[in-house]
Design goal:
single chain, 332 residues, alpha/beta, TIM Barrel, eight-stranded parallel β-sheet, 14 helices, binds hypoxanthine, binds zinc ion
Length: 332
Amino acid sequence: MASDWRDFPKLELHLHLEGAAPPALTRQIAAQKGASTDGLFDGAGGYAWDDFTDFLKVYDQVAAFYQAPEASGRLAEAVLSEAAANGVIYMEIFLSPDHVSPAGGADQSAWEEHLAAVTEGAERAEAATGIVARFIPLCVRGLGPERALRAAQVAARAKTERVVGWGMAGDEREYKPVDFAPAFQLAADAGLRLTAHAGEFGGPESVRAALDDLRVERIGHGVRAIEDPSLVERLADEGVTLEVNPGSNVALGVYPDWAAHPLPRLRGAGVKTTISTDDPPFFHTTMTREYDMAEKTFGFGKEVFREIAETALDAAFCDAETKAALKARLDR
Ligand code: HPA
Ligand code: ZN
């Protein structure tokens, strides 16, 4: 297989800032803090974890190294530079106010410092590589509705032109989407566009509930909608965009391998689909690898990837002017 999709222009809508932390940077930050990283790395250039529950735990451990603004600014710059080296021209990054101040709930001033640092990191990466970044703060489902509402308040108050959306990650098997309706309403009222993780470790009912109760316009993952043909039809009819992360799904065991992944079937049914990496070093992936694997397994080529880029551009939460500039770069 020719690994030649690196330079193809890509838009990435689903990536978690701390989940993308380069292990080498985490080592440096840990060394500066004199903190132990025993058992954190897997010897293959990624982080060590064994199932979804453990993944979320290790994710929290990695995030803890990036609470200080000096660290989070370097992180944003590194993550965006790495993405740009993989042909990404536009990226929406999930930020987590609860990971910045994990003890008692999202703290306004800690979050504002974090956001300022991450913004400066993004500006450095943009200046060096041309990649364009926007942010989507989110809540962590397992922390419950009160923490989510607090995170939404903190996020909405610190809204900048780069903060374009609101989302929810974490363990879909905990609570129900409706429990988080107040947080999503608050975010929507503040002018943030909405997305939520669903249909990854939850089935079709979880996707339906995110649409009905949270009024999201995109779904993070959403792939398990494939288990219910009427839901697939609804997604296609309503033009809901799925932020699909095939390598993540395979790594976490949602599907046994790439060949079993429903992305081509969802596309075939007319559902709007995009491709992202989610948490690249946790899943030993990059955007280049996702595209190489999609070519190898699904036979996707230039035309499909171009369509996916346009779908992502349509579904992006940035302003029309930014979209027009990105469109021009795609057309070049
Ligand atoms: N699912 C749920 N929560 C997450 C993920 C994911 O894939 N990545 C980071 N937090
Ligand atoms: Zn995710």
